[in-house]
Amino acid sequence: MKILHVITLAELGGAQSVVINLAGKSVQDGDEVFVASSEHGEMWDVLHPKVHQIKIKSLRHSLGLADFIVLKELNNVYKKFRPDVIHLHSSKIGILGRLIFPASKIIYTIHGFDSIRVRYRKFLPLEKILKARCRAIVGVSNYDLENLKAEGITENIHVIQNGIQDFARKDFDDAEDLFADYRQNADTKVVLSISRLAPPKRFDVFCSLANQFLNENLLFAWIGNKTEEKNIPKNVILLGEKKDAFTYYKDADVAVLFSNYEGLPMSLIEALCFSKPIIASDVGGISELIDGNGALAANEDLHKMQKTITFMLNNQNIYDKFAKHSRRLFEDRFHVDVMYNKYKELYSVIAKK
After folding, report:
1. Per DSSP, what are the bridge partners of residue 138?
2. For the chain, give me the number of helices (H) and strands (E)?
3. Matching CATH topology for 2-163+335-352 and 180-334?
4. Which of 19, 51, 191, 313 could form a disulfide with 47 if both were Cys (CB 3.0 to 4.6 A apart)?
């Protein structure tokens, strides 16, 4: 089977992680896999070596006149490789791909429908117009599925939750504490958020929560910022962008993510993998990652966040229970094999037609 994945940007992120994992698993199954995306980005360095890389110089994040060139290049890619399945990722490529590729071969994954429904609502009419120009539309959460239905997109829709490799099974140097240089002492607990420092993420909520613990032996660490921030609480550290940022979960105690909207965030799935309790904003599909392993809160409810962290960290039995539930949730629902097998079924159905 020939499978073509197309995604707008080649920078590393949640949607790109899905592409990387699906492409790698398909290659291992003997499929011939192609990935097309923007010219520059870290994704190219981590794709399976047998994946064919197609770099489209004119492909950018925003829509513009250059996209007429992109459409021509995508058409050339299709004519050259004749894939059996075309898997589109991200809203922009979801539009361009459905305009140029045969509808009978297309799977379109929306990596968080709120990015269209809330942030870029001006593109929602295009989504509705193009809804029939594919064989399957995939939401990454049940939350997304319900919102697709509410917007009148009801045909050929599916839910396939994101999955990741079992990073916790990798060989790490357990003696190396990645937060050793920042802890006050050996008893310092770490609350970790891995996220871009940009909308819709709520760094302000993160800092406000940290302020509630200024007199406690608690460190709040943020990974993913590209710039330094001023006037942050003294118990907050910004570690910048890190390769394999998920490895920091092994030395953290609690995972947090505060945001105005989300799909199904990879960073929290990584936290599940490392058996970390989670406290997060009650938005998007995040609720599907919480089941006896943490708490959801409104972004304004600092009291609930503070109370939950204090309760967990002061009661070892409760903490251990939450940690165990996180790991079980990962193994049952968010392992890469669970995700891949569901996509593989769709691929097989489309390739047969």
Report:
1. 109, 158
2. 12, 13
3. yes
4. 51
Average pLDDT, the chain: 95
Q: Is the dihedral of CA 268, 272, 273, 275 positive or negative?
A: positive
Both tokens of 322, joined, read 């939450």
DSSP state of 51: S
d(CA 109, CA 90): 7
Closest CA to 93 of 110, 117, 113, 112: 110
The two beta strands, 52-56 and 32-38, are parallel
pLDDT number for residue 119 = 82
For residue 265, is the peptide bond before it cis, meaning its omega torsion is within 30 degrees of 0? Answer: no
pLDDT in tens, 53-63: 999 999 999 88
pTM (two decimals): 0.92
Token look-up 């997109």 returns: 153
What CATH number should be reported for the domain whose range is 2-163+335-352?
3.40.50.2000
CATH of domain 180-334: 3.40.50.2000
For residue 341, give the 3-state DSSP assignment.
helix
